Amino acid sequence: MARSRLFALALAGALLPAAAHAEPAYQDDRSTPEALVASLYNAINRHEFARAYSYFSKPPAKDIDAYAKGFADTAEVKVLTGTAGSEGAAGSTYYNLPVAIEAVDAKGGSKLYAGCYTLRLADPQIQADKYDPLHIEKGSLKPVKGSLEEALPTECGDGPLPPAKDALLEKAKSLFMADYAGTCDASAMGPEAAEPQSWDIRFSLASDKEGDPKRKARLFQFACASAAYNQSNAYYLVNGEGELRNLQFAAPELAIRYENDDSNGKVESMQIVGYTAEDKLMNSSYDPETQTISSTNKWRGAGDAGSSGAWMFRNGTFTLVKYDVDASYDGEVDPQPVIDYQTGP
User: Fold this and answer.
1) Residue 317 pairs with which residues in a beta bridge?
2) Which alpha helices (DSSP H) does the chain contain, by range?
3) What is the percent of the chain with per-residue pLDDT over 70, rounded to a whole number?
4) pLDDT grade, residue 247 (50/70/90)?
């Protein structure tokens, strides 16, 4: 049986409640097991329960009304599928499809379920009087915890389901290796640096309405390199639309004047002359409570000169809210605020 891989079927327009967004586009595709299951949940999200009911070979409820009542409190259903394994038997092809779904209710609460659908297609070449298309024979989904991506089983078959593979983590690893090949090497930083850290972030956009379900992003932190007194990290973010990207962090470009043009002398002036974007942060960490990434860059080992920044998660991305600089190499740690949108009056 083929080993599954992540095959995300984004139900176009169906990822948010119908009250706030347009009805999802009609989708009725029985060409593959993945497409059929996507069509099933498209029908559910469009409240076309007779169509959803028709995808099953055996009635999933005593009648269509009873089937529809089972979704009375459901505002939307998101679905991920793996790749179907297949086997032939007595003129038919049977498919076993890994599936994970997230059912969101009208109040924004959600429940995760994962398992397998078994589908059957009788050989079209031997069907004569009446054509029977690909259909669902049975489904076995059980409540699970975690994220939708984490819940997706890696494959279906006899016996208990194997642990789900973290598809987003694997994709982030692949992108990190491609983006920083020859640049980052965390091998000298110990075995704990080999695996990235990750956090789920629940949030709302400024355009979201009161009562809309919370969106979810996911942050990955990768160890990049370690020098004598600085360790760098790269970050990747899966935003609320499921897009994975390498984060760039805004940072001020400074013009610093020293007395007698000697960097060991007194700082005469320090001005922002522009902004740059940094793809790596020094000695950084993420605080899930404040949803803030903080970084401290030592300009020399003594730590008496350097810069520090804070980027807070706002409206779906990380925004620079604080930046301090200690530009004097005087043996004292005395950072001065250059940007401060974080401290109250």
Assistant:
1) 314
2) 33-45, 49-54, 64-69, 148-151, 167-179
3) 88
4) very high
List of E strands, 185-214: 197-203
Residues of the chain with CATH 3.10.450.50: 7-165
Query: What is the rounded CA–CA span in Å between residue 22 and residue 36?
Result: 22
How many CA atoms lie within 13 Å of 215's alpha carbon, on the beta-carbon side?
A: 23
pLDDT tens profile 10-26: 333 333 343 444 678 99
- Mean pLDDT score, 108-113: 90
If one looks up domain 7-165 in CATH, what number appears? Answer: 3.10.450.50
- Tokens 């049986």 map to which residue? 1
pLDDT surpasses 90 at 307: yes
Average pLDDT, the chain: 85
Rounded distance, CA 114 to CA 81, Å? 10
180-230 pLDDT tens trace: 988 888 766 666 667 899 999 999 998 989 888 889 999 999 999 888 889
Q: Are strands 74-81 and 336-340 parallel, antiparallel or unpaired?
A: unpaired
How far apart CA 310 and CA 291 sit, in angstroms, is 10
Whole-Å CA distances, 170 to 149, 234, 244, 285, 307: 11, 16, 12, 21, 33
Q: CA 186, 192, 193 angle in degrees (round to 5)?
A: 25
For residue 150, give the DSSP letter. H
CA 108, distance to chain mean position in Å, is 18
Which string of b and e fits 179-206 if b means at least 16 CB within 10 Å? Answer: ebeeebebeeeeeebeebebeebebeee
